[in-house]
Amino acid sequence: MSNPNETAASVERPLNFLEEIIEESIARGDKRVQTRFPPEPNGYLHIGHAKSICLNFGLAKKYGGLCNLRFDDTNPVKEDVEYVDSIKEDVRWLGFEWAGEHYASDYFDQLYEWAKELIKKGLAYVDDQTQEQIRQTRGTVTVPGTESPWRNRSVEENLDLFERMRAGEFGDGEKVLRAKIDMAHPNMLLRDPIMYRILHSEHHRTGNKWCIYPMYDYAHGESDSIERITHSICTLEFDVHRPLYDWFIEKLGIFPSHQYEFARLNLTYTMMSKRKLLQLVQEGIVTGWDDPRMPTISALRRRGYTPESIRMFADKVGVAKRDNVIDLGLLEFCVREDLNKRAERRMAVLDPLKVVITNYPEDKQETVECVNNPEDESAGRRGVPFGREIWIERSDFMENPPKKYYRLSPGGEVRLRYAYLIRCDEVIRDAEGRVTELRCTYDPESAGGKSSDGRRVKGVIHWVSAAHAVRAEVRLFDRLFTRASLDDPEEGKTFLDYLNPESLRKVTGYLEPSLAEASVGDKFQFERTGYFCMDRDSAPGRPVFNRTVTLKDSWAKIADK
Ligand code: ATP
Ligand code: MG
Predict the structure, then answer these.
(1) Which atom of ligand 1 is nearest to the CA of 52?
(2) Residue 322, Cα to own-chain centre: how many angstroms?
(3) Could you say which ligand is closest to the alpha carbon of residue 277?
(4) How high is the pLDDT of residue 8?
(5) CB count in 10 Å sphere of residue 434
(6) SS3 for 82?
(7) What ligand has the least distance to the C-alpha of 46?
(8) Which of 450, 458, 422 is nearest to 438 (CA)?
(9) How far apart are CA 550 and CA 297, in angstroms?
(10) Which residues pair with 231 in a beta bridge?
(11) Which of 413, 530, 425 is nearest to 476 (CA)?
């Protein structure tokens, strides 16, 4: 049996650029590796975060180091404990355990002291301009900014004002603290960036202790420094922020964490902005953060993805230094690979057509033996009831079949998986001419699906005994969006104009009876139709299954449409 823990991660591959950097520093004798995953708790984690988690925790693990989980919770208005809890659950589910659980808010006192230190060094000042005025005086890439009229306040005045900001003497937006760097700096982020703003707002961890909050750019680099992070890994768009983080670290003379940037994960047909995902949730376009059509980790979990498949995906995507877009098909490939090894097979008919086997005795019933997983002998076998009336898939019958159609057609013969050969004798229809039933005869000498006289019957179809079938709601998901790239909508459109109206189709499936015993989260391959996972909406006697993924990549076909 193949080991389910073995993913592509254990397969030999060339070092990525971060591994090269780490191995070089190890060779120089610098052995300590300390990374961190720094989410802002303002939404649920998505597959892009999963990439970052696998990278940060993966590097620490590979080089005997540690990885912290740090919540960059500097914005009290958008953050929530619900998000903190979901993030922890998702990281653990992916298979990682953090060394330290930290919060930027734990560092608020230290950050405040350091801000005062910068004021004392003449490197920070209180500005009375509004944030709007500050934006307007920043200049442009080609035009230098204008210095604030408050830029040259004395150290004493700055200290006094900053302390009074903290004490709550001023209203929101009345003053800010800015770093005094260079209003003509070619990097706009270094044109006296804001370090602190006034926000009379309760924080989910510090309550009402603070009414001034550090800006992300001031808090982030120093939080790394406090945790003595050796490799501060982030996505490419932060490369322009690095000089600012370095400036604070240098001026304060604190631990020099070094930032390295890699290309963020982009996936076709997938929206990965937390703000826009929140919009989908808030506007009820999806049922919640874990709606199985969402790209969040919680949604992938609910849909039936395994941690192993996501880690395999992260590994196959690799670590690039340049932006690129990955085909969603690769993620689906990974979950197929993984579930193929471990998901037990079951029979389920999703678009039923009744078959009556006229020469099978009415009162007879038998149990046929089915293999649970041809990829895994240890999964054993199970009995499945067979009887005179069965359901087959409507698409497994064609009245006027083209050549090379090996399934059922009038006069034709097909093999029922694990059971018998049947021949279609008669087609019954309703008043509208729609086929409602097939009347067939079976070959009693073909138990196990083998003909006794050696005649060849190519087609094999799945079936479910009508007398024993368990009815279930089956949710067939498709991509949430119809457009591969959502970052550059056509003129006058937004990402909401590309919602796929067919992203969810609910059908009633007829499942073999063993599935009545399944539990929420159990995963199966429904023979010939795909991988399915039992959903938490299931009720006793009324299971609900989510289709994780189809068996084959229908991608190319869809993309051509
Ligand atoms: P937003 O969507 O609001 O821009 P974010 O995706 O940057 O936020 P954070 O919580 O700040 O969310 O991200 C935590 C970490 O995950 C950061 O280090 C960030 O670089 C990384 N990350 C976020 N999105 C991706 C992505 N698509 N691919 C790889 N890493 C990502
Ligand atoms: Mg971010």
Answers:
(1) 30
(2) 21
(3) 1
(4) 45
(5) 7
(6) helix
(7) 1
(8) 422
(9) 19
(10) 258
(11) 530
CA–centroid distance, 518 to ligand 2, in Å, is 39
Beta bridge partners of 353: 392
Residues of the chain with pLDDT under 50: 1-9, 555-561
pLDDT, tens digit, for every residue of 470-481?
A: 999 999 999 999
> Which residues are identified as catalytic?
40, 264, 274
Q: How many CA atoms lie within 13 A of 205 on its CB side?
A: 20
Contacts of residue 104, defined as CB under 8 A and 6 or more positions apart, other chains included, come to 70, 71, 72, 73, 74, 214, 219, 220, 223
Helix axes 242-252, 108-120, angle to 10 degrees: 80
Candidate from 47, 52, 271 with most ligand 1 atoms within 8 A of CB, to mutate: 52
3 state SS of 173: coil
If one residue of 42, 44, 49, 262 were mutated to test the ligand 1 pocket, choosing by the most ligand atoms within 8 A of its CB, it would be: 49
Answer for the pair 226, 220: CB distance below 8 angstroms, yes or no. Answer: no
Backbone angles phi, psi at 348, to 5 degrees: -150, 135
Tell me the CA distances in angstroms from 363 to 159, 222, 418, one per residue in order: 93, 77, 21
In whole angstroms, give the CA distance from residue 326 to residue 533: 25
Token pair belonging to 413: 């013969």
E strands along 282-434, which residues?
344-346, 348-349, 352-357, 366-371, 381-386, 389-393, 413-416, 421-429
Answer for the pair 480, 499: CB distance below 8 angstroms, yes or no: yes
pLDDT at 10: 52
